[in-house]
Amino acid sequence: MGKLIGLLLILIVLTQPVPTAQADSLWVDSAAAASLFSDHRAHAVGDIITIVISESSSASRTGNASNSKSASASLDAGVGLFTFIEPVSGSSSDSFKAQGALANSNKVTGRITVKVTEIKPNGQMIISGSQTIKQLSDEQKITITGMVRPEDITPDNTVLSSNIADAQLKIEGKGPLASKQKQGVLTQIFNFLF
After folding, report:
1. d(Cα 184, Cα 175) in Å, to the nearest integer?
2. What is the 3-state composition of the chain as percent helix, strand, coil, each rounded to the nearest 5?
3. Between 183 and which of 84, 153, 158, 187 could a Cys-Cys bridge form, CB atoms 3.0 to 4.6 Å apart?
4. Residue 112: how many CB atoms within 10 A of its CB?
């Protein structure tokens, strides 16, 4: 009887459908990089490009202004009936002088990876991307948008920030460090009034 039950169990197991294993390949034939010899530079919406930011600017201005004026008047002593008039003289002068100087320099370097959001009919690509760095309570956000020509993309899929048309690079910060670099409310009111 035990052998019969064992034989029935073996038959049941053997008659059950065998599950087949599905193996997914790491190689996707439809991917943009399907060929080992294809160009890996961005060329379609959704592709990514690394922007190498290297911007510097400087400006300086000096201004001087001055003016002055003076006037004088005198009246001699009175004669005849007007002998009671004493000799009088007066003078006035006014001068103004102002000097000012302004010097400003900025330098921004870094790398940020952005996405192609649109392809123009002439092949130029609209790019947009942002990067947020948070350290303790301070947060810095870098945002860049603009237009890139396909010929400006290097073989390693990077573009210099100086080759981006209509580039807008924004660096914003918030947190304790950023708030300490702003003028206080009373100082801002005073500067607005005067």
Report:
1. 15
2. 20, 50, 30
3. 187
4. 17
What angle (nearest 5°) sits at the alpha carbon of residue 114, between those of residues 150 and 41?
35
Whole-angstrom Cα distance, residue 93 to residue 73? 12
pLDDT in tens, 65-118: 888 888 887 777 777 777 777 777 778 887 878 788 878 787 888 899 999 999
From the list 119, 118, 161, the residue with the least C-alpha distance to 143 is 161
Strands (E), the chain: 48-75, 88-119, 125-135, 138-148, 158-160, 165-174
What is the spatial distance between Cα 147 and Cα 115, in angstroms, rounded to a whole number? Answer: 11
State the CB neighbour count (10 A cutoff) for residue 141.
14
